[in-house]
């Protein structure tokens, strides 16, 4: 089962531009995480934002969370060729005493040199 | 190396055969997850453990799939009577969690299964 849904499914931008990806989810969450996956590889954790946080930064990454709209966005500023990858949001639900991590379908980002 | 390791990296098997994959999590992590991923899709949750207890198994998972985590350390995922539809990347991840809190998950490189 997948809770998150990323938008757009695919994004192609010029190197140096900013990339914005959105994620919508259905149920109450404890936290939301963003991951990156290079082709054929495992996923790498990028950033975690808790349900009581609205914005978080890490280097060139900026994540926002709007729990009233059940949505999050990931902004990558000053994109580089090495940012080409698939990006997934993942949610940890807010109800269970021991919660699993559920992934969305991902956004495939291509950076044109 | 203190990351999550999976073995084997690749497995080709004939339809109807049984296969078993192994995952060694980061040693201090109490939670271990198995996911399945097909091309162009996100990781699909299969099952997860907290220490040695299997907390949940996806309803999408048939009875041909079973997972264990004896002693709360490494885990195995077995698929019996494989079908062509089982061909996918099987990903293992581990994390540190308490109650409803869950930290970042660390993923292994995956086991790519091809059923011919």
Descriptive overview:
The complex is a heterodimer of chains A (113) and B (116). With 113 residues, chain A is mainly beta. Helix content of chain A is 0%, strand content 58%. Chain A has no helices and eleven strands. In chain A, strands 2, 4, 5, 9, 10 and 11 form a six-stranded mixed beta sheet that branches. In chain A, strands 1-3-8-7-6 form a five-stranded antiparallel beta sheet, with no helix packed on it. In chain B, strand 4 (31-37) and strand 5 (44-50) form a beta hairpin. Chain B is mostly beta strands. The model of chain B has no long low-confidence stretch (mean pLDDT 92). Chain B contains no helices and 13 strands. Chain B is 0% helix and 52% strand. The chains are: A mainly beta (113), B mainly beta (116). At the A-B interface, strand 4, strand 5, strand 9 and strand 10 of A face strand 4, strand 5, strand 9, strand 11 and strand 12 of B.
Compile the SSE list and pairings:
The complex is a heterodimer of chains A (113) and B (116).
Chain A: E1 5-7, E2 10-14, E3 19-24, E4 29-37, E5 43-50, E6 55-58, E7 61-66, E8 71-76, E9 85-93, E10 101-103, E11 107-112
Parallel strand pairs in A: 2-11
Antiparallel strand pairs in A: 1-3, 3-8, 4-5, 4-9, 6-7, 7-8, 9-10, 9-11
Chain B: E1 5-7, E2 10-13, E3 19-24, E4 31-37, E5 44-50, E6 53-57, E7 65-68, E8 75-79, E9 88-95, E10 97-98, E11 101-102, E12 106-107, E13 111-115
Parallel strand pairs in B: 2-13
Antiparallel strand pairs in B: 1-3, 3-8, 4-5, 4-9, 5-6, 7-8, 9-12, 9-13, 10-11
């Amino acid at each position: 089962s997948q809770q998150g849904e990323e938008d757009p499914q695919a994004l192609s931008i010029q190197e140096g531009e900013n990339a914005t990806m959105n994620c919508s989810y259905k149920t109450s969450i404890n936290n939301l995480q963003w991951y990156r996956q290079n082709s054929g590889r495992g996923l790498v954790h990028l950033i975690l934002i808790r349900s009581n946080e609205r914005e978080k930064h890490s280097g060139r990454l900026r994540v926002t969370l709007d729990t009233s709209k059940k949505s999050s966005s990931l902004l990558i500023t000053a994109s580089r060729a090495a940012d080409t990858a698939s990006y997934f949001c993942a949610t940890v639900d807010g109800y269970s005493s021991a919660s699993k991590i559920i992934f969305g379908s991902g956004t495939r980002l291509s950076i044109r040199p | 190396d203190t990351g999550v390791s999976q073995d084997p990296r690749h497995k080709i098997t004939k339809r109807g055969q049984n296969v078993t994959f192994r995952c060694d999590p980061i040693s201090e992590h109490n939670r271990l997850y198995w996911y399945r991923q097909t091309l162009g899709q996100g990781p699909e949750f299969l099952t997860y453990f907290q220490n040695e207890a299997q907390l949940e198994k996806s309803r999408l998972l048939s009875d041909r799939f079973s997972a264990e985590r004896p002693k709360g350390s490494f885990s195995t995922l077995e698929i019996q009577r494989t079908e062509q539809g089982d061909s996918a990347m099987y990903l293992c991840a581990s994390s540190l969690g308490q109650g409803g809190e869950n930290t970042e998950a660390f993923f292994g490189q995956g086991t790519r299964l091809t059923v011919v």
